[in-house]
Amino acid sequence: MIRAVVWGENVHEKRSQVVADLYPEGMHTCIAKALQDGGIQATTATLQDPEHGLPQARLDDTDVLIWWGHAAHGDVDNAVVERVADAVYGGMGLILLHSAHFSKIFKKLMGTPCNLTWREAGERERLWVTSRHHPIVRGLPDHFELEQEEMYGEPFGVPEPLETVFVSWFQGGEVFRSGLTYRRGAGNIFYFRPGHETYPTYYDGNVQKVLVNAVHWAANPEQRIVDVHAAPNIDVAQALEPITARGPKLHAEGEDGFR
Amino acid sequence: MIRAVVWGENVHEKRSQVVADLYPEGMHTCIAKALQDGGIQATTATLQDPEHGLPQARLDDTDVLIWWGHAAHGDVDNAVVERVADAVYGGMGLILLHSAHFSKIFKKLMGTPCNLTWREAGERERLWVTSRHHPIVRGLPDHFELEQEEMYGEPFGVPEPLETVFVSWFQGGEVFRSGLTYRRGAGNIFYFRPGHETYPTYYDGNVQKVLVNAVHWAANPEQRIVDVHAAPNIDVAQALEPITARGPKLHAEGEDGFR
Amino acid sequence: MIRAVVWGENVHEKRSQVVADLYPEGMHTCIAKALQDGGIQATTATLQDPEHGLPQARLDDTDVLIWWGHAAHGDVDNAVVERVADAVYGGMGLILLHSAHFSKIFKKLMGTPCNLTWREAGERERLWVTSRHHPIVRGLPDHFELEQEEMYGEPFGVPEPLETVFVSWFQGGEVFRSGLTYRRGAGNIFYFRPGHETYPTYYDGNVQKVLVNAVHWAANPEQRIVDVHAAPNIDVAQALEPITARGPKLHAEGEDGFR
Amino acid sequence: MIRAVVWGENVHEKRSQVVADLYPEGMHTCIAKALQDGGIQATTATLQDPEHGLPQARLDDTDVLIWWGHAAHGDVDNAVVERVADAVYGGMGLILLHSAHFSKIFKKLMGTPCNLTWREAGERERLWVTSRHHPIVRGLPDHFELEQEEMYGEPFGVPEPLETVFVSWFQGGEVFRSGLTYRRGAGNIFYFRPGHETYPTYYDGNVQKVLVNAVHWAANPEQRIVDVHAAPNIDVAQALEPITARGPKLHAEGEDGFR
Prior knowledge:
homotetramer; alpha/beta; nine-stranded mixed beta sheet; elongated
């Protein structure tokens, strides 16, 4: 059974009555329940937990991490960000939702500003599938609608994705590449746009299907790579083809390289 | 005329007699001369210069930055790394050479460990073109050799590139994707493997051709994007299609978003 | 000076009064004039010309071919399609416009059905730039509008592109990846969506800018590769590293391979 | 249980004593047995069977087709090639082995010449993993060797892949991108280089692991897309957002488009 952790920032659920009414147990709990209904073993973690609920031992036992953040990106500890990144390089899947486009972990893994245009007006969003029968769109029609969503508009400051899975149409005239896949190290990454906290997006059946599918797609059953930063010096004596060392050298045999 | 800056760490040129003998004016100067011979306006900067020779004003006037570093990646100031990254997002080209795979700027832009295996044995490297007639291989044969080079071996811890331009064969039995293109924001990025400081690689005619070609390929004549992190809030009143704001809101009209 | 040939099917210009009134000299002539104004040496060719105006000698002297077709894809001679494909593999640029998505040459180069949904209702299209400062969007704003266009909708049956340059918003609720780059052999390929023959699309200043930019982007100044299908048998005696032939063989030394 | 069909040309097994001795039941049977041992329901089909063993009904019941051909690419019926291509677009996985690089079906799906250099000298090949923990390399070390193989060398005339999974080192000095993934329509495609018929490659444990992994990776459990070439005209009355038809038209409402 795939083990997912849904990480919620859990800030607006406390500060905003609107959000608290919509998601009384937090957005993370709503999402985790949807994953459980989809046959996934899902638990939650929040910003307020010790180590944000993501100590090393828990990441070691997590197949896929789902990340939702918005108001408190800056409060996420850099050490946890590095830890999550290393887990991704080693094979943990990572799904970033909506305003997580500006999370430290997404910006780190993309290597770009991850910026966009936006408007909070409760306008209609329609998501179109651009990669038919991709594992992430299993069981979905060619498009589906969210009657009220925040708008995110292009240009979206991310690298060219491996695959573009969804493109969104917005009532106010914008478009957005709403579902994008990436790979970083051995980790599968999926960015999925919908999910503004003032709307009931994570109760939507199609959105829930996407999340369940994405967790299955992102999970990597192989054992986690341990030292994801290793850069081993291969001795001449161990060379796969017999060679003799020639020319001047900087390094002593077996020495570590510079970093 | 394209304006290039060749950044050299300039450490082993001072510390190692072998390197000093090979590159008495520094590797950066050797590379800059090759670019000049190729019709490019090339100057140099080094780690030891104030602000590592890369103040904002200079980056503003640089079309393509070439980066060679090895022993002192950790000594590069983080503020300069951020500045270079922002210039890349805004449209400056960036070419990373050899051991710059572990530079802060490359790791930041890739979002991955950028690790590899290596062996310093002066073995033969043969670079094969895998993207015929790519602008970066202009005037080159389908393969060329470097009689003595350091080996770098796969797996190379980088994201899937936009294009694989070269793959290297090594005498000791390894292979490496030696020429890779990426785009980050408006900036073109090229990683090129050869160039260990104890060998005369940057005097090689084919290597020099690659560098000249890569500078031409990476240069973006468009005016630099200024605020590369901007994420503008688009007012409902300015929406391209007439819409009426609906539903609950977190943000006041025109407010900045969270970061 | 870049040499472009604008190929026009030139059928609806003869059969439809609407199209004839809009493009009295043919759509191809309108496009060629825009390219000429952009500093490109542009001539035209049509379906009705001998060999569709594309004999081998002309392709040999063409840097970039622009292709518009719609009603008569099936009338294009297969030999000409093969000839154009070989020119692309050898380094000729190819730009496919609008209904050329169903042309023989595009389907051949993509290896996919290239299908989509469509509606001819003169609705508003808005093209959004998704790759800022890409050479193809030089001088363009982040979006531009065409007040009346035919709708093309996702899913678009093409392979993942090298780069997604434009995404279109349509008034009726659809989206489309409107500007896509590919490389096939040494040839740069750009598909650009707008251009239904009953609307004045090719008189639009932004569209003309895209076409001029795309021709510059697609042109490959290297000498054309001659035998694009060559699969040479490398003699053991010519091997770059000394080897001795071992084991059983099917082929005599120097023999051609099977096809 | 995944249903695979292993298609073998089955020509050299009849004509060459060497091949017949190595693969007395045919290469396809050897491969099918390896898949069966890996928990896959695998059957075989050959060129000599009626409709090459690939009637429509069988393709409808096939999750993944494995293709090996060499001497008789030209004898494969074009109608069968189209049928296989349509099955791929609809979601059938396809794995192409070794000399299948020149098969009609691979060239059709790639849209390129698929040429390479080659040498039949029984030299050593070493495959390096370039995408760690990719599903296709599950359980494999970072590299493995085949003591005798035919050499295939770069440049390989294929489009940039979705992912490069293996790169090969050859004793005679060449390299080759030996494992490449693509997607065409809903179909996952994997090209895998090794497998010259005069060597015992398909008895190799690592090669068998790759094949089993690749079948699992390529299988798409979604129901096959039926009309893979459909390009539906969306009525104005059915538009998702209310619009009014404007401007001149070529097509009557509900009419089929041109092809």
